[in-house]
Amino acid sequence: MGGLYVHIPFCKKRCLYCDFFSTTLLERRKEYVEAVLKEIAERKNEVEEIKTIYLGGGTPSTLEVADIRRILEAIGTDKAEEITMELNPGDATQEYLRAIREAGINRLSIGIQSFQDKLLQLIGRRHNAKQAIEAVKMAQEAGFDNISIDLMYALPSQSMAQWKADIETALELKVQHISCYGLMYEEGTVITKRVEAGELEAIDEDEENAMYDYLCERLKEAGFVHYEVSNFALPGYEAKHNSRYWDGTPYIGIGAGAHSYVGNVRSWNPDDLEAYIKGGIGYGLQVTRESETLSETDRYNERIMLGLRTNKGVERGAIKKDVKAQIEAGLLRETGDGHIVATQQGLHLLNRIIEDLMI
Ligand code: SF4
Predict the structure, then answer these.
(1) How far away, in angstroms, is 141 Cα from ligand 1 center?
(2) pLDDT tens digits, residue range 24-48?
(3) Taking the complete model, does pTM exceed 0.85, yes or no?
(4) Euclidean distance between CA atoms 217 and 226, whole angstroms
(5) CA distances from 263 to 37, 47, 266, 293, 343 (A)
(6) 205-221 helix and 160-172 helix, angle to the nearest 10 degrees
(7) Of the candidates 8, 89, 59, 87, which has an alpha carbon nearest to the alpha carbon of residue 273?
(8) Whose CA is nearest to atom 3 of ligand 1?
(9) Which of 7, 19, 24, 59 is the pocket-test mutation for ligand 1 (most atoms within 8 Å of CB)?
């Protein structure tokens, strides 16, 4: 049992905060899809049963429906329970949404980020708030009943009132899943440079924590389960594909820059469009993929890092360090079934706690 991820690295425009591997060379899409199809044929049997499929990016919705259909056919969807595709609201039309639903996509992840036009412009998104709302409504009309949206907080100049309004809009849209990320100032991105140059002001850590706490409280009140540090779902709508990353189930990553994890071996394709296309068409991707076998220590550290991000936590007996101090400080707590999970206060300091518990 496993998952399969396909990376579609194309974006019509680069967002100002982004440091993911993506490209605006849309004219290379056809060749890229051919390479992807070849890699799927070569590698899809690396995991026994593909139960979840995720088309991520970049922007998968820059692909034509015919290419999405070819990719899904090449993978084989008969055993798949969840087939997710990321969608940019700027690409949403009734026709496109109906066609991808028909092609087999049964879950959408819509990159909304904000319902405030000013903030969307500030971070360089190519859609506006109206398009974001319409994308969700059109998807619902097209028959999607498992929709996730992404929202961002801690954006420069974002007020608490704007953030609260975004959460209310998300709730009014009656989506089943919400992922929320605080803005990260990655090195070299345009937004980081603007903050460094004093053109924009980052909001402070207390304000960011207050936004996160409000989010957790409000979504809980609305019936959402906070099942991972950045992810909230109505009961039964937790993302199956992403949950597999967190619990160590094998997955194959197809496409440029995609990572795989099968049998304690992590491998990754070059995050280079040319190298990927050339490898896929001409030489066979096995040649260009790099890999590493995870040691027992690596696997332990990974279990701590991923487990503590979830509401399931990590079995106390599996943790090799003493957690008494963190429990006394109110950062961790033990559940009734002997698992250690982060408290709300602990979630603010999660990276530090994880580092302390790693070996
Ligand atoms: S759409 Fe996504 S991958 Fe593309 S530039 Fe924006 S954040 Fe990055």
Answers:
(1) 26
(2) 999 999 999 999 999 999 899 999 8
(3) yes
(4) 10
(5) 23, 9, 8, 9, 32
(6) 20
(7) 8
(8) 58
(9) 59
The pick from 7, 8, 22, 190 for probing ligand 1's pocket by mutation, whose C-beta has the most ligand atoms within 8 angstroms, reads 22
Long-range contacts of 101-106 (CB under 8 A, 24+ apart): 101/142, 101/143, 101/144, 103/65, 103/68, 103/69, 103/72, 104/69, 104/72, 104/77, 104/80, 105/55, 105/68, 105/72, 106/82, 106/144, 106/146
First to last CA, the chain: 30
Q: Spell out which residues line ligand 1, taking CB within 6 angstroms.
A: 11, 14-15, 18, 20, 22, 57-59
Q: How far is the CA of 154 from the centre of ligand 1 (A)?
A: 18
Assigned token pair, 291 = 């890999």
The total number of residues shown for the chain amounts to 359
Count other C-beta atoms under 10 Å from residue 63's C-beta.
Answer: 27
Burial of 46 (0-12, 13-18, 19+ CB in 10 A): middle
Give the number of the atom of ligand 1 that is nearest the alpha carbon of residue 125.
Answer: 6
Domain boundaries, the chain: 2-245, 296-357
CB 252 within 8 A of CB 2: yes
**pLDDT tens digit sequence for 225-256:** 999 999 999 999 999 998 777 777 899 999 99
**Which CATH number applies to 2-245?**
3.80.30.20
Distance CA 59, CA 29 (A): 11
Strands 225-228 and 251-254: unpaired
Q: Ligand 1 centroid to 291 CA: how many Å?
A: 26
Burial class of 357 by CB neighbour count within 10 A (0 to 12, 13 to 18, 19+):
buried
Separation of alpha carbons 167 and 165, rounded Å: 5
Ligand 1 centroid distance, CA of 105 (Å): 21
As beta bridge partners, residue 5 has 54, 253
Residue 125 Cα, ligand 1 centroid: separation in angstroms? 8
Single-letter code of the amino acid located at 142: A
